[in-house]
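hi!! sorry for the late reply, been swamped w classes. u asked for the two structures so here they r. pasted raw, havent cleaned anything up. first the sequence of the first protein and right below it the tokens
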Amino acid sequence: MQQAQGPIFYNTDTGDRDLGSEKKRYSNTSFTDIWIETIALKAHLIIQTSPGTYYIKGYKNKKNYNEIKHILESNQSQGKYSKRKAWLISYT
């Protein structure tokens, strides 16, 4: 059974729907519930947008953990999407 590792926190986003899939959750959903769903899906990413909407991304394996990490690090260094919060999760 795979175990979740992390998360690593970023102040950015991957951008658009470049990960091929996302699930939208609203701010009235607790972060704990979002975390549990993310782990159940083996998703790599939780995004919180500035109005407080959450997105679970990276669960259809279109991009792997390292590719997602690279996108987040690049976007953060360029100051893109700085009002968004991202939690990157790996699995071992």
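now the second protein. again sequence first, tokens right under
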Amino acid sequence: MADRRDDRRPGPPTPRWRPWLSVALLLGFLAVLYLWSGVRLEAQPGYEIPYTRFKSLIASDKVAEVRLRGQEAQGRLRAPEALGPKGESSEFFRTYLPPFGDPALLPALEGHAVQLDVAKSGAEGLWPVFLAWLPWLLFIVFMFWLMQRGLRNLGGGLGGGELKQFLEPFQKTAKIPQVTFADVAGQENAKREVQELVDYLREPAKFKKLGAEIPRGVLLVGPPGTGKTMLAKALAGEAGVPFYSISGSEFIEVFVGVGAARVRNLFSAAKRDAPAIIFVDELDSIGRTRGTGLGGGHDEREQTLNQILKELDGFEEHEAVIVPAATNRPDALDPALLRPGRFHGPVHLDRPAPRAHQAVVAVQRGRVPLDADVKLAGIAAVTPGFSGADLKNLVNEAAILAAREGCASVAMRHFDEARDKVILGSTRKLLIEPEERHRLAVHEAGHAVVAHFLPKADPLYKVSIIPRGRALGGTQQLQERERYTLPEDYLKDRLAVMLGGRAAERALLGTVSWGADDDIRQVTALARAMVARWGMAAEIGPVDLRDAEEHPFLGREIAQPRRFSETSAEAVDNAVRALLHEAEERAAEVIRGHRDRLDALVAALEKEEALERGRIEACLGPPARAESGASAGQVPAVCTAPGCRR
């Protein structure tokens, strides 16, 4: 299908000289006024002479005519005289009358038959009036310039502007994407749900024949980076229809009604190109619940939302237009958007399962030359919890590392380094004192020993004391199987692992350091969730006593009014403290029982700085593992480093 464009085009640009035309006319008017007022009268060339010389020339009957203008007198002699400062001859002269006047001048002129002409002085006429009005004229010119500039920016006046461009119909080319469902790896469930929309766009008559009504929109919900935009493009690519894309924030402007006008223009363009797809990204920016105060009231946003609802209901039967919309905050959407017949769904896009990571990486391998030692299954196994965007970024970082080294292909070591960079950050060069370096090795070795010898803990992947990002070291674990629920015994072992570094410092060095700050924060949050949310404390029972509501899409907690008594809050604090003390004691017991192996691991860490699973097991021996599967899990790897981002 050929690309389609909107038939409307903006008019020709306004010439740049037009704003200055009014200024030129004003300057011309001032010039005419200046000349008309008689300020610049044509003057004859002449020399200035003293007033006494002027009187003597009159007395000698040498002056033919005199012209008086205020205090100035210009005259012409009957014959040239030496009037110049160097004796130059001239018949024209000028002089100035005394300010106190000369009563004898007029009789002398009349007595010697001198022609006298009296002209208006320069202070008379229209020029003084103009000078009085000059400040106001300048103010009017300045205001006129401001108005022209404002109208130009708003779209009226001279030369168009942002508002005019905003109100113009949809001007982008509606292209058919080259993306298909094959490019959206790891989202099989979501692709299955939107497949019926592809069939409808390809053969709408088949559905209309049976009286079926396909929803006009589909809501794509998921965390950032899970492929919502790519799935919408793939929907258009599979159906072979034009794809319009716009963000919800582009509808919102300062002026009420502008967003609604653009909604109308966008849907009109799509209807002319039907069958077509309109993808609205960040729908929550305009689709928040009206009238509740959530996110603040906004007349422009609400009018835009009303127009979208109207457009979704205004499709004719022959107009095959589908409106996919993406959001990561479905809880904030207005219920009118989600009613049957408008937005179908929601279609959830989750982070791909570990077994799907291999397919996601395989999609990227077409643009990156891989070395023979690269195993996609190995990459998938060590990237649990990664989204599609994370995996794409991992491949890109590995390619950048290979390019820096001048390699012809990307090797497995580049992927390992890129993974550490994505999780912990770039390597930092720090001058760490030997004593402090020894404490870091003890801390990370404590995490590793506890994780190695607790039966329910996840297996170790890597231990390092190389500073990366905000962390000075890190202990990374990989879950041994795909988990969708977290049992109590697994969570208690996880608490002990998080406190293993602190327990090792106390056992080997006698004191603890601030390096356990992030460990304590994470372990307290997990223990409080076990007590107040999941009912894993016998003295509390199955009661919801959380003091904050976790936002499932922003990854933050929103404070809520307390709905329980101080006694219940104190009971929660006591239960959390008991859980943490129990976990710390378990970690200390493991360290006391394997002190010699802990010392060996500390020595190896100080020597090699980073140890992977094989070297760790060489130092600690075989791990204590409960019977379980051998596949890698979906929940993110545990990272006990301070400041770890994952």
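hope this helps!! also noticed smth abt the second:
The chain has four domains: 40-119, 181-348, 358-424, 434-620.
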